[in-house]
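Standup notes
- DV: blocked on the single-chain target, sequence here:
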Amino acid sequence: MKLFLLLGAINGFLAVALGAFGAHGLEGKLTEKMLGIWDKAVTYQMFHTMALLVTGLLFAKLQNGGMVWAGWMFFIGIILFSGSLYIYSVSGVTTFAMITPLGGVAFLIGWILLGYTVIKYV
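- DV (later): unblocked, structure below
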């Protein structure tokens, strides 16, 4: 699905930009703990950006609903997991950290759907 390739490209750009901002723009402004949280958000965003790209490429071959759901779960996971960690690291508001596990669950569902679809249709 072309949309997942586009979302992957956008999220790849954002992960690099946010990683650079964290390393250069937030240094000295956040505690080491909060910088570590920011870095975790960047890392998971980039991993799942790659998953979005793979999903988009596999969809071109399989054109299966499982791939579509996997892609959406990866994208939702990026928003909930990485997004909540970005906000938490700069605000310190723990409510945002409580959203993070929902993003983790979305990632897990995405990986299960991707694996199942590949095993079944490739």
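- Follow-up: The mean pLDDT is 96.
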